[in-house]
Amino acid sequence: MSRLDPFYPVVDSAAWVQRLLPLGTKLVQLRIKHATQAQLQTEIHAALAACRAHAAQLVVNDHWQLALDAGADFVHLGQEDLEDADLPALRRHRVRVGLSTHDDAELERALSLAPDYIALGPVYPTTLKQMPWSPQGLPRIGEWKRKIGALPLVAIGGITLQRAQGCFDAGADVVALVSDITRHPDPEAQTKAWLQATRGRA
Questions:
Q1: Spatial separation of the C-alpha atoms in residues 50 and 58, rounded to whole Å
Q2: Peptide bond into 122 cis (omega under 30)
Q3: What is the Cα–Cα distance from 143 to 171, expressed in whole angstroms?
Q4: Quick check: is 26 catalytic?
């Protein structure tokens, strides 16, 4: 099982990807919810080119077919995305897959599909989107890690730099974050602080 960088920002544009990579970011997710097919293609290609130039790993959220067409080698799928995703096609093209989980049934389903990582969330309350699930809390991270063993566990949802160590201590291998970078008044400084805090964990 290949390791993932413990610092995993989630951003909504190739411009953000290009902004974070020169600082030392090695793992980044491109999550774009509202765009045309042409816009998505442009964003994915630009983000992928930037990641390759910086020896970083791009994970494309949801849009697995466009990721496949662009030559990306990692996608992240939510439970609802699994209804339409062609997992055999992704496997044939050696595309790695991360899966979101929120409860035991989703975890069981995800593990049956042999993903490359499991994400658990929301760990803390999040303001980014309406969640049908209550915050999972730190004990749930430990419970999930015991169930999945060596498979990388990604904690996501309301995670800040101040909360990161608690997630790692609870059993997370990776922490994914959105607003602690994208809504921070100084994203570059905050990214550097994250990299400093997580350096040596990878």
A1: 9
A2: yes
A3: 9
A4: no
| Prediction pTM value | 0.95
For residue 125, which amino acid is it?
P
Neighbours of 30 (CB within 10 A): 27
Q: Is the pLDDT of residue 54 over 90?
A: yes
CA-CA distance, 138 to 15, in Å (whole number)? 32
- Residue by residue, DSSP assigns 162-182 as HHHHHHHHHT-SEEEESHHHH
**The one catalytic residue among 31, 147, 192, 201:** 31
In terms of DSSP bridges, do strands 153-156 and 7-11 run parallel, antiparallel, or are they unpaired? Answer: unpaired
Please say if 134 is a catalytic residue: no
Residue located via tokens 């570059």: 188
pLDDT surpassing 70 at residue 40: yes
Q: How far apart are the first and last CA of the chain?
A: 13
Domain ranges of the chain: 7-198
pLDDT, position 128 = 60
Q: What is the CATH number of domain 7-198?
A: 3.20.20.70
Instruction: Respond yes or no: is residue 147 known to be catalytic.
Output: no
Catalytic: which of 112, 129, 134, 146? 129
Residue range 103-144, pLDDT digits in tens: 999 999 999 999 999 999 999 987 665 666 678 999 999 999
The pLDDT-based confidence of 183 (bands split at 50, 70, 90) is very high
For residue 30, the SS3 value is strand
